[in-house]
């Protein structure tokens, strides 16, 4: 990788909560409209972080139920210590790594990213994490590896969604190797400087900010380097609606709804929808990965 991506904001730059809440009310049109001339203007798709409360109370984590409030209610049952990740497949140093050993010597960075769910809601989340490339380099990726497969823990006794078989568990995801090695791709261990909450995928989860949220698999226990494209949970559940790439793309609609706009969580009941950005706003950084691909076919 020729460059190391640096964030334009760190958590120390985050606007105090009261200020950005007020700013959001202004953008949502609930205070001071006429006076400051914002009437009728669409809300920008900017990087105002959501509150920790919002980030930890509106979730998708089907192992703990399909409702948005279910993970916050049920994920305290997830056992996150001790935790290890098995790294296998086409690597020089396969094995089961204790999480602390895997993170040892790596720098935990602040990354404030847009997070866009395929269901057309979004947040801005101030993650703390390491670049996935640093972890993969520790394991030593072999030259014939082309993809990276990920797997979430299964603790049937603690996971009501697993007991009810709402999806085919374990939840699995995958990236092409160049996507996995991209400096924007991180393994998150925290949010707002706190250990990541169970409902957000403790103790470590993937974050790929230019892809729909379901690619960002939670509570990872296995990473496998492969030559062939690995199966992914939502593609297995409904291949017509969910492809392997799942790049955020406002010009390619979901079969059942538009992807042109999104609802920013926390914006308030009357907040205008905001425009969805190509590659979720990371086009400059990642568009070159897909040169020569037809993104209306490779969904
Ligand atoms: N990972 C696992 N293991 N199980 C899941 O159900 N849901 C995905 C993704 N990762 C999911 C998962 C979906 S659909 C989204 S939008 C994001 O997690 C939600 O992340 P958040 O709850 O931290 O916002």
UniProtKB/TrEMBL annotation:
Binds 1 Mo-molybdopterin (Mo-MPT) cofactor per subunit. The keyword Oxidoreductase applies. InterPro entries: MsrP (IPR022867), OxRdtase_Mopterin-bd_dom (IPR000572), OxRdtase_Mopterin-bd_sf (IPR036374). GO terms for molecular function: oxidoreductase activity. SUPFAM superfamilies: Oxidoreductase molybdopterin-binding domain (SSF56524). Keywords: Metal-binding, Molybdenum, Oxidoreductase, Signal. It holds the Pfam family Oxidored_molyb. It catalyses: L-methionyl-[protein] + a quinone + H2O = L-methionyl-(R)-S-oxide-[protein] + a quinol; L-methionyl-[protein] + a quinone + H2O = L-methionyl-(S)-S-oxide-[protein] + a quinol. Mo-molybdopterin binds at residues 59, 62-63, 117, 152, 200, 205, 216-218. Heterodimer of a catalytic subunit (MsrP) and a heme-binding subunit (MsrQ). Belongs to the MsrP family. This is Protein-methionine-sulfoxide reductase catalytic subunit MsrP. It comes from Yoonia phaeophyticola. The lineage of its organism: Bacteria, Pseudomonadati, Pseudomonadota, Alphaproteobacteria, Rhodobacterales. The gene is msrP.
